[in-house]
Every structure is written in C-alpha cells, then in structure tokens.
Description:
The structure is a single chain. The chain folds into 2 domains: 3-55, no CATH class; 61-143, 2-Layer Sandwich (TolA/TonB C-terminal domain), CATH 3.30.2420.10. Helix 1 (3-18) crosses helix 2 and helix 2 (25-36) packs across helix 3. It contains 5 helices and 8 strands; from the N terminus they run αααββαββαββββ. The protein has 146 residues and is of the alpha+beta class.
Amino acid sequence: xxxxxxxxxxxxxxxxxxxxxxxxxxxxxxxxxxxxxxxxxxxxxxxxxxxxxxxxxxxxxxxxxxxxxxxxxxxxxxxxxxxxxxxxxxxxxxxxxxxxxxxxxxxxxxxxxxxxxxxxxxxxxxxxxxxxxxxxxxxxxxxxxx
Length: 146
C-alpha cells in the first residue's frame, strides 16, 4: 500500500474514533474505493466495488415497503418534498433505529409519518461472511400532492 493512502486511512480511522465510531474493514474499504476512483460515483457503484473487494459483504434488500400517510394538516398547507432517514436494518430484517437526517416537516407531522412507515418495512438482512448483521442504510421518503 502506498504511503499516502496509508496516511489517509490512518487519518480516517482517527476521525472515526473521535466520533465514537469504529474503523471497520468495511468503512476503510469504502474509503479506499472513493480514493481510488477519479469520478463521481453512486452508492450502488461503491457497493459493487466494495463487494468485489470484500465478497462476504452484502446490503439489505427491501421485501416490504410501506408508503407514508399524508396528514390532513400537511395537505391543507400543500407541504411536499422528501424526508431523509438513517435506518438500522436488524439481522432479522426488521427496522431498528430510525433517525431523520434531513427533515421536511416537523409542524404538520410528515417527518413522523415517514418514520412510522419506515418502521413497518421488512428486509432480507445484510450479510457478512454468511451471517446476517445489522446494517445502517439511508432511506428517502417522498411526499407528493396530486
């Protein structure tokens, strides 16, 4: 491994630990993929690259998706847009912790509706070396009036 990449990985590991997170091999592999590529990439591309480098790792797959309900107050106020959430998919495929990371509406209840809907989703769990594991994913819920 070249010295510059080793230094970047060391800096990343330090930054993760300072935030109370672990510098896992998966996180470092993601950093390597992002460092190796000289163009904009999608999350799917990063996953494909990491999977090729670490074949024992897979993402959860949605089996059941529940759409959020619009509140009457949000409809009356013509609120539209997206709620971005960080979601932990548990080893049994259910949804654990849900955190809103980009809010649409805290006044008329759309953020809460997005969280309630997401908690009802079901997944085929993410895997690591053949074992189901908890995986954090990002889910975007869109509210559109017609």
